[in-house]
Write a structure and sequence with these properties.
159 residues, alpha+beta, 2 domains, 5 strands
Length: 159
């Protein structure tokens, strides 16, 4: 089974590879052409000329492993550049294996780490009220006839 860790580095070899190569041939490619250490635990991805076969070489505690996939129809698509090797995210590898064209994918910025601030407690309490989640009565400072947590917990018990 092929279960890579989320923090592993993935290298795509951008040249067509002879899929008759096995452990020794792919290890030689990694050492000589990619100039990487095959014992490092990183994933090395090789695709053939027709782009219908893919092999992933990696090293586990007890030895080398090769994961292989051959497509019955279609091709593996990647945004291969002019360089001999390309660093991929694990997500990109999964997309390539699943047949999704990574050349047409746009990554959208989700937040700016420089301006991201932690949530304050009033925002979280308001979010709980909005979602009708029960609020701990020990931390609620309102009276039992208020319109916030008490009313919403009554709504939850009546429905």
């Amino acid at each position: 089974m092929f279960f890579p860790e989320s923090q592993v580095r993935v290298w795509l070899y951008n040249r067509p590879t002879d899929m008759r190569k096995s452990y020794n041939g792919l290890v030689a490619l990694v050492k000589n052409t990619l100039e990487e250490d095959p014992l490092s635990g990183q994933l090395f991805v090789f695709i053939n000329r027709h782009r219908n076969q893919c092999k992933v070489l990696y090293f586990e505690r007890s030895g080398y492993c090769i994961w292989s996939k051959r497509l019955e129809q279609g091709q593996f698509h990647s945004h291969a550049g002019q360089a001999v090797k390309q660093l991929l995210a694990l997500t990109d590898l999964k997309l390539i294996i699943d047949g999704i064209d990574t050349r047409s994918i746009r990554y959208h910025k989700r937040y700016d780490t420089r301006t991201a601030q932690p949530l304050n407690s009033s925002y979280i309490q308001g979010l709980r009220i909005f979602l009708f989640l029960p609020i701990n009565p020990l931390t609620c400072s309102c009276s039992s006839s208020c319109r916030c947590c008490c009313r919403n917990t009554n709504l939850r018990t009546n429905t």
